[in-house]
Design brief:
Layout: E1 3-9, H1 30-38, H2 43-48, H3 50-53, E2 68-72, H4 81-88, H5 106-116, E3 122-126, H6 129-143, E4 147-150, E5 155-161, H7 167-181, E6 190-197, E7 203-204, E8 210-213, H8 221-227, E9 231-235, H9 238-241, E10 249-251, H10 256-268, E11 276-282, H11 284-290, H12 295-315, E12 320-325, E13 344-349, E14 357-361, H13 366-374
Parallel strand pairs: 1-11, 1-12, 2-14, 3-4, 5-6, 9-10, 9-11
Antiparallel strand pairs: 2-13, 4-5, 6-7, 6-8, 12-13
């Protein structure tokens, strides 16, 4: 019963890549700057070898790390969650997914209004989700116009109050946006339905959020594993980034703590006759703290994860492997609230292995190649497995 667990610490980059200047991200270093600013206590991650990946204040490189360590380089064009996860799955994007820092062009909005039948839209800007519903929520209730906005990611987001637009209707118009509006040159990574509730003090309903993702090209890691009979489980938003394809089971989560608990639960319920791949995304680092320029909150979130590491390792079967990485950077000390073009960490534990330096990997796709080899499958295309190294 081989089990492979991949945990993506969303936004936890470990230093700007050589091409960061092309993205305006020279000098970014999410993990180091968070450590310099807020001094998180991360003993479990330090024992795994976190301090051996990048020089960090007060986190040393231990003599005999429990995990193999290194960093991975993004070669795809872009720095968002879809691009990062797709490359981790063995997909290289030659062109970045479209983003709209000044809002969507009038032609897109006009087509969306025409096809969906809504009486117009509000906002049409790049904005924080909580701020945009606070600003436009009352007007939305009065006019029935949904709130359309984007972010630093390649997303077309539609927010609507459940009293003004039933959730199923919100899903319907988002599906129209996915299939008929956000196509061609405007094929964003995700169309996201964002229902909210409340009066005056509005609250987003995370459990009713729905993502309508761009379908990933094949071959890709989840699809290959599923076709080979490996049970594939998504925890967090991973399946959303693959349009639900390639996963036998999905568990949505509301926080990092919820995601960690879901992983421990999934490990406790393993069928001893199944090969299993579990892919986890822990989003709080990025969503709650990176985008909000909050290094203190980011540090506390790292401490929360660190405190769960031992329980995760105890839950892992004897023949199980664990890989901890990220999908991009999101330096909360850097100007702006966008993602940052950074290397991502690599901490890897597998049966019979001692910790070693895996160096700087040439692509995130080394993850896909490693998982494929672990389950005895042929290479995924791009990427080189580091499983055979000793």
């Amino acid at each position: 019963m081989p089990v492979f667990v991949t945990i993506v610490l969303d936004g936890v980059g470990v230093g700007s890549q050589p091409d960061a200047f092309e993205y305006g991200d020279e000098g970014s270093n999410t993990l180091r700057h968070v450590c310099e600013t807020a001094n998180p206590n991360l003993p479990a991650l330090a024992e795994l070898g976190l301090g051996c990946i990048v020089e960090l204040p007060r986190i040393v490189c231990v003599r005999n790390p429990r995990a193999s360590f290194g960093r991975m380089t993004e070669i795809s064009a872009g720095k968002d969650s879809t691009t990062g996860h797709w490359e981790l799955a063995g997909i290289r994007l030659e062109h970045p997914l479209p983003v709209y820092p000044d809002g969507f062009p009038a032609s897109m909005i006009e087509l969306f209004v025409e096809l969906s039948g809504v009486p117009g839209v509000l906002a049409n800007s790049a904005a924080s989700g909580t701020e945009v519903i606070a600003r436009y929520g009352e007007e939305h209730l009065q006019t029935g116009r949904p709130i359309v906005y984007t972010s630093a990611d390649s997303v077309f987001q539609v927010a609507a109050h459940v009293d003004a637009m039933p959730v199923e209707e919100l899903y319907r118009i988002c599906e129209i946006a996915r299939l008929q509006v956000c196509i061609g040159e405007h094929a964003v990574g995700r169309v996201i339905a964002r229902p909210f509730a409340g009066s005056g003090d509005f609250t987003r309903l995370s459990d009713k959020r729905r993502d309508f993702a761009l379908k990933p090209p094949k071959p890709n890691l989840p699809a290959l594993l599923q076709e080979a009979g490996v049970r594939t489980i998504s925890i967090g938003k991973v399946a959303d980034l693959f349009s639900g394809e390639g996963f036998d089971a999905t568990q949505k989560t509301s926080s990092n703590g919820d995601g960690i608990a879901a992983l421990v639960r999934a490990l406790s319920e393993l069928n001893p006759r199944e090969d299993v791949f579990i892919w986890v995304n822990l989003i709080d680092f990025d969503q709650e703290f990176g985008h909000r320029n909050n290094p203190v909150g980011f540090a506390r979130s790292l401490e929360e994860f660190d405190s769960a590491v031992e329980a995760l390792l105890d839950s892992l079967p004897d023949d199980g492997a664990l890989l901890i990485t990220a999908d991009h950077g999101n330096d909360p000390t850097y100007p702006g609230t966008d993602h940052t073009r950074e290397f991502v960490p690599l901490l890897f534990l597998a049966p019979g292995r001692v910790g070693e330096d895996l160096g700087t990997r040439g692509t995130f796709a080394d993850h896909a190649a490693t998982v494929a080899e672990f389950f005895g499958l042929p290479p995924t295309g791009i990427g080189l497995s580091f499983l055979g190294r000793r």
